[in-house]
Amino acid sequence: MAEYRKPIPRPTPETRDFWEGCKRGELRLQRCTSCSHVFFPPRGHCPNCASRSVESFAASGRATLYSYVISHRPAPGFEADVPYAIAVVQLEEGPRMLTNIVGCPQTPEALQLDMPVEVVFEPVTDEISLPKFKPAGAA
Amino acid sequence: MRRKSVAIVGAAETTELGVIPHMSQIQLHADAALNALADCGLTPKDIDGVACAGASPVEVAWYLGITPTWVDGTAVGGCSFMMHVRHAAAAINEGLCSTVLITHGESGRSGIGRARFGRAPDSLQGQFEMPYGPMGPPTLFTIPVLRYMKEYGLTEEQLAMVAVVQREWASRNPRAMFRDPITVEDVLNSRMIAYPIRLLMCCLVTDGGGALVLTSADRAKDFPTKPVYILGTGESVETPMVSQMEDMTTSKAFRVSGRKAFEEAGITHDDVDHLMIYDAFAHLPIFGLEDLGFVGRGEAGAFIAEGNTRPGGKLPLNTNGGGLSYTHTGMYGMFALQESVRQLRGTAPAQVPNCRISVCHGVGGMFAASGTIILTNEEP
Questions:
Q1: How far is residue B342's CA from residue A35's CA, in Å, rounded to a whole number?
Q2: What are B316-367's pLDDT values in tens digits?
Q3: Cβ contacts from A onto B, under 8 A
Q4: pLDDT-derived band of residue A139, with 50, 70 and 90 as boundaries?
Q5: Confidence band for B98, pLDDT divided at 50, 70 and 90
Q6: Helix B80-94 with B333-345: angle, nearest 10 deg
Q7: Does B159 map to a domain?
Q8: What residues in B contact A12, CB-CB < 8 Å?
């Protein structure tokens, strides 16, 4: 496998559970045990009510395509990928996240807003797998 | 703040604008500062407050030989200068200092003496955005556009009209970088940068700077220039990551900042003669018109396409040509403020007749932050 030249996340104490979940093939979100607010990215307290009593759980991995661009300007390491979609998905549990949409052409026709998508995990190192999304039901 | 208690008495841009490879970023700060000081007949020794972004106020104060009693290094992107004006007004009213210099200098195009833009891999953006391949603002700031288009039926032609109308203003401005008229077809045939955003929907990348001098209104009449009084101010922030905006069809920071500024100023939208909305990309004026309340949700695309903001229209917008055609060094907010001052002094190349009240609205980062300054030339 060619050397992976794209930016690689470095987990922090607050995000380690998320990235370890990704390594296992689990998309983990956090929920406030006081007000039940579900949020992302991970942090040590609830952004809704400021409670420090938060727990993490495995999300369904189901989402819809909220918005995107199809970039013709490759970031370093992405030269072979252009054009590629940089997308925001709306997770079933509420939060949104930036991601790539894989498993379909990177065209406006194939990328319809609000279409259902589901998470897949792309291993990039022994420690890090990136959550990406593919059209629901796609191979 | 108290209305009209503080005035802008000095305002100037760098001597040159556009491509300035023979000047470092800190020298651009100084060039703008010296021009603004000359504009109001002061020297660095007369300044006791310094605010800037892109450099430390320590660096700017030392470089110019200023010993301040107040500094502000708020650096939240292109609207930092709106915040500096707001903070400076409060500081002057509180007696923390009497005469404030706000500087901007950016070697955005030539990259001389400029810190590199980077994201640590353990920052939030480094973990949750950069791994997916964004390449600067053209591929991130633009992500909300498709969602807005779907929600409100904004067309690519309407988006293109933003750039067309601003070029009409730029064609009247000798200092504008791009002055040749363009058509909707030109915009829609320009190179695709990040679908649906094409090259002519993106701002320029230039070198340049600007500076302002502020003092209390009771001193303002002692200066050679026509005072421009601060009538209302607002600021807010939303998120460091565009992907985490509450709603991609509207900016919370815009709404909070704008509402606060209008409340402070005690004016209605009908009182506004002139408007600047920071246009890093063609969708920014659309979001700004709606989030500031000039038009209803979903109405801004048609409002611009119908000609309301073009020369001769009822709401002159981005009259220097904006970031799309005039200049954009990276943090353009200073240039929007400069144009508001010129319009209220009556010295703008594309002068709006009888201009009394100007609203100047900035964005920082990618819908990360916002600052709004309402200015007037009417005396207290």
A1: 51
A2: 999 999 999 999 999 999 999 999 999 999 999 999 999 999 999 999 999 9
A3: 120
A4: confident
A5: very high
A6: 60
A7: no
A8: 122, 127
The range of the structural domain enclosing residue B218 comes to 6-113+204-376
Are A81 and B133 within 8 A, CB to CB? yes
B126 CB neighbours in chain A (<8 A) are 7, 9-10
Residue in chain B lying closest to A97 (CA): B243
Cβ contacts (< 8 Å) between B132 and chain A: which residues?
Answer: 86, 98-100, 130, 132
Cα A40 vs. chain centroid, distance in angstroms? 10
pLDDT the model gives residue B119: 78
Contacts of B120 in chain A (CB under 8 A): 10
Partners of B241 on chain A (C-beta within 8 Å) are 41, 98
Return the CATH number at B241: 3.40.47.10
Produce one character per residue of B248-262: b if its CB has 16 or more CB atoms within 10 Å, e if not. Answer: bbbbbbbbbbbbbbb
Query: Is A73 close to B135, i.e. CB distance below 8 A?
Result: yes
- Cβ atoms of A66 and A4 within 8 Å: the answer is no
Do B193 and B138 meet the contact criterion of CB atoms below 8 Å apart?
Answer: yes
User: How many residues can be counted in chain A?
Assistant: 139
| C-alpha distance from A14 to closest chain B C-alpha (Å) | 11
State how many domains chain B has.
1
Task: Measure CB to CB from residue A7 to each of B131, B136, B138 and give the nearest one.
Answer: B131
Q: Are B57 and B102 in contact (CB under 8 A)?
A: no
A68 in reach of chain B (CB within 8 A): yes
Q: Is any Cβ of chain A less than 8 angstroms from the Cβ of B153? A: no
| Element of type H or E holding A21 | helix A16-24
Question: Do residues B236 and B253 make contact, with C-beta atoms less than 8 angstroms apart?
Answer: yes
Longest dimension (CA), chain B: 56
In a domain, B168, yes or no: no
Q: Enumerate the H helices of chain B as residue ranges.
A: 25-40, 57-64, 80-94, 124-128, 144-152, 156-170, 184-189, 217-220, 252-265, 283-291, 300-305, 322-325, 333-345
pLDDT band at B1 (very low <50, low <70, confident <90, very high): confident
Taking an 8 Å cut-off on Cβ atoms, the answer to whether A7 and B138 are in contact is no
Q: Is residue B192 part of a domain?
A: no
Residue B180 lies in a domain: no
Of A74, A86, A108, the CB nearest to B132: A86
CB A83 within 8 A of CB A108: no
